[in-house]
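Exam revision sheet. Question 4 asks you to relate a sequence to its structure. Input first:
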Amino acid sequence: MRTEAAVIHGKGKIKVTHVELPPIGRDEILMKVMSDSICMSTYKATILGEDHKRVPPNISEVPVMAGHEFAGEIVEVGADYADDYTVGQLIAIQPAMGLENGYSSGYSYPYFGGDTHYTIIPKIAIDKGCVLNYDGTYFANAGLAEPMSCIIGGFHAQYHTKPFVYEHFMGPVKGGKMALLGCAGPMGIGAIEYAINGPYTPSLLVVVDIDQARLDRVASLITVEDAKAKGVDLRYVNTTGGDPVQLLRDITPEGKGYDDVFVYAPVKALVELGDQILGFDGCLNFFAGPTDKKFVADFNFYNVHYEATHIVGTSGGSTGDMIESLEMSARGDLNPSFMVTHIGGLDSVPETVLNYPNIPGGKKLIYPWVRMPLTAIDDFAELGRDDEFFAGLAEICGRNNNIWNEEAEKFLLEHKTASTVE
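Answer key, structure tokens:
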């Protein structure tokens, strides 16, 4: 069958084109993709092309489908899996298969990716447990379970100890003191929500950034009052000016510092700030991945020895983390759509990917069955002055604090369907 897809076909080369899919085998599944969010990782894969560790060396001859944060529904099941999956079942894909060569959907396969109408899920992905059931009806949050799983994985990787008990107790301190640094961006928003609604629930949660506009926006999405109802003392703090170490330590009881600190921006000064506000047995999670392979920061090893401070780093999330996100989203306990700032159709993928570092805001959400330029949610109202479609989207999002939502998704899919590639 014929599908449309955005494919990477060389260094800095990505295009939307027709792809002829072969009939699925007994050990494969055909999936109709309904949403995919674009990630910085896709930009890196495109720019590096065959020099990327997950991209095959022959992409100029055999292009690979782009997109790895996607969800949709099953439209055909190979005979070998007829007892395990059903036509019409809603699913999300875990791209991290743990293969020795690092290959995964969205990087490595000609027919397996998220920026397409249809994709073929291969046996290796199915057998690795990467086809995840989704009990909700909102495709965006299912696709966003992949970036959300990275956040959840970071929380699960935290650890603490007891004096003279040489055992690690995993996860942040329940009812403890937590600081999230550089945390007013898209991934940071997910971290704030998970901290409040997840299984660890700190008693004190301090969100730190130096961009007041971003802090104000996050505070309007996740309010101090809502956090208080969950037993969390939530503070939004701008550390511009003054002594940030003293400011943040003074928020904690007796100035003793934090049990858990997460760093969401690869900034040397931010890492060092995190180190300086750790309390006894405090754990710092360096979540933000730097592009500089020689990135370094000072860390107080006196405190490592005498105050038992320590550091972890996490990249990506496990299948279990992704399942947790899907289940929480389906229950309404988590809304990954807080991270979304732009909406686009399949035709917008190449330009979006190639310009990704220069496009402000958070996650860029793609609907493969839609033809639409990448558009900021904040621009819907202005565009709606001359366009009834955008006026409708603006009205729906306006009723939801300008957050992308299931009603907006359904409106989009009803009013904007993709045509063939020109």
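Marking note for examiners. The chain has a mean pLDDT of 94.
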